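Our consortium's second objective concerns turning raw sequence data into structural hypotheses that experimental partners can test. To show how far this objective has progressed, the report includes one record in full. It was chosen at random from the queue rather than selected for favorable results. The single chain below, 450 residues long, was entered without modification.
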Amino acid sequence: MTTEQAVTTTAGPPPLVLSARSAGLRYGALFGPAVFGVTAAGVALPDVAASLHATPSAAAWVLTAHALALGVGTALFGRLADSRGLRTSLLLGSLVLALGTVVCLLAPNIGTLVVGRFVLASGSGAMTSGALALSAAADPADRPKVLGGFGATMAVFSASATLAGGVFTEWVTWRVTLVLPALSLLAVPLCLRPASLRRGSGRTLDLPGAVLLTVAAMSFLVLIQSYALGLTAPVVIALAVALLVSAAALTARVRTNPVSFVPRVLVTDATFLRAALTGVGVYAGLFAAMYAVPQILVREHGWSVLAVGSWLLPGAAFGAVLSRVAGRVAGGRGGRLLLSGIAFAMAAVVALTAATGNPAPPVVGASLGFAAFAVTQVITTALMSARVEPALRGGAMGLLNLSFFVGGGVGSATAGALVKSLDLTDVLALVAVFPLVGALAALTLGRKAD
């Protein structure tokens, strides 16, 4: 492909020509609504519990199920795209996403709603993995502009999520808020033609390996939230056993199976591991901040949910600008320094919240978190797309983002556990360690693999 991304088929339709910037915006629109699944949905939880007569711990599963399925779905559909083609992955994921949306809209009780959210998030994982694979497959000459547009769009979605959640929950219904990730379906037709160029390799999917990874990830994410979810001791023990057994079996499979669902070449790649640690730190910091910041502003400063969302919107513009910059310098030292600087700034600002008692630090800290989130995607996508062979890119990006979402789960779970014994402002100061870890890891991304 040239600077103008040409997408052609051998059949009758005329060629579709996309500029690199247009491609980036489309891919960002495909990924972006997934952000609403956690941040926007969190705003609706009180209304969900009241409407369905559910306890707060039961209502929390609405977010937990989504986080579980989104991370696993991203990895599963990423590998499916490598094996059967990206177009197939997007179409199948669209069906799953649509099915989950219908279940959520019609769910008569909290149990059915949680199942619907799990199905919806699984389909949303296909959208995120597809967007990442398309961005990573861009021609190297176009990649900076593609990633710039992609990151800018991501920043807008992430910064507007709280406001969207408040608007739809207060003025429409909480059910619409919970299915906002389905907006990705509007972008699917815009991405099918470029997706058709990403044909599958025909390699086996390694379903046993996929099951082991799913069990390990799900057990870990639920286990770290067991305190906040109020799980009983037998359930916690069962989860721990499931985690240990599945992790051990998966490790053995990676070592012995050359076509394992988790390729050995990835988990032994120092660059991949450093990128994963960077994203884990950034996502953990953002998810923890999005748990604490809205509550701090509402409870301690008397803000409305709509006011919180409105004041976080400027972060979208800031994140969009930085994402454009990151797209231009993603492959060099400047990109690593930019990401590290944003993460450091986020850690420093959120740590000031308890010391100042002013609403400005949590607002600025959350806004920096949105920017760090978008820039992390730009930098890591550019890094891995240049490093991973095309036949493994979809799966590699899916596994990388699975680790990111697991990190996000760790962040929100940590904040949820700490808030039972500490003030929210003190919690925010403690979880500042997460973006600090991300910032330090970002500085190592330039090292050559061992």
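The partners drew two points from this record. Confidence is low (pLDDT under 50) at residues 1-15. DSSP finds 22 helices and two strands in the chain. Both points have been shared with the crystallography group to help prioritize constructs.
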